[in-house]
């Protein structure tokens, strides 16, 4: 009989703002304890495709998202419980600032009783860093802060000033010197994909381990205290935000779903693949960049990614374009998200203003637009049912058909991203989180079998 309670050390890495070094330090910790023979399971809060790739390589374990709004309390609880059964340490990396968002990182940590460590870039301040950390630690009674990690600390004297200014119940867990050699590389939408710089990341991970060992404050290099994780004791996926309880049925039993996956299309939640498989689907992958034919499949998923960086190669692969166009004509299900939607349009103009023909299964033109973009949590409101997700793009589309629906923004009354449906195709800028509504997701991939 499976236990309903399990104990496991856990730590939640948070910060007063973005760009404080959370991902670098989380990756460094994951590799440090992995090198000691520990099983480290890492989770990333909120919608993020790139950080989990980095963290998975650092920990040598799968990394999934935890988000109460997208998936619900019970989903997050079950993921943590499953991880705690096999892990020696659970690390959770927060998003944005500690209290930013609804729900915030602090909300998630409080809900599951995970102690938080505040990562702060202390360059240019000393006692003020202690004051900020103390304020964050005492802002809410339901959040336990284990201590402060002073990143980019200039000297031992700098560290001493911060350490002496902290209250006794808020220790300085680590003082990490400035070292550009361990900083993770970036791209226009965030971090580069791990597969592109795998060898470089290995060098940086190991350098980061030595970087951690240099701290005079060793609290971060010790396993935190074990906390209790509970089973939900039922085979359901629940989103309490929408009161939607859904039994995991084999809606996709015997179906093959072909997923585009290469340098152009890689924004794929592991949770989405697991969701498809939990409904009985077989998942196979193909490359729109390199393959000439589609695998045998009952449905296609064209996820987001960087098609604008590979527009010429995608356009030049006429055999694949013809294969997908022929698949579209069958009326079978195709889900095209963000970059996948751009690929579905008539043409795409890249960052160099070069225009290339694309699939042409959805009328319209796509174009990149530099640094300005759109992002935020939204619910796809479509005939199949509401599916939660998010938008994050720096492109625009024009001359597209009449939408079948729009995204409903989490905290704003204005309509969100347009959603298009024709034949079996569903296309939008939205990145969907399948576990938020398994039945509606199944309907998207069974488009040709709907009444």
From TrEMBL:
> CobB/CobQ-like glutamine amidotransferase domain location, by residue?
257-436
What the entry lists under InterPro entries is as follows: CbiA/CobB_synth (IPR004484), Class_I_gatase-like (IPR029062), CobQ/CobB/MinD/ParA_Nub-bd_dom (IPR002586), GATase_3 (IPR011698), P-loop_NTPase (IPR027417)
Cofactor (UniProt)? Mg(2+)
- Cite the annotated pathway: Cofactor biosynthesis; adenosylcobalamin biosynthesis
Which residue stretches belong to region Disordered?
389-412
Top-level taxon in the UniProt lineage: Bacteria
Q: Which UniProt keywords apply?
A: ATP-binding, Cobalamin biosynthesis, Glutamine amidotransferase, Ligase, Magnesium, Nucleotide-binding
**Classification via SUPFAM superfamilies:** Class I glutamine amidotransferase-like, P-loop containing nucleoside triphosphate hydrolases
Q: Where is the CobQ/CobB/MinD/ParA nucleotide binding domain?
A: 12-189
The entry's family comment says: Belongs to the CobB/CobQ family. CobQ subfamily.
Q: What is this protein called?
A: Cobyrinate a,c-diamide synthase
Native species: Marinomonas primoryensis
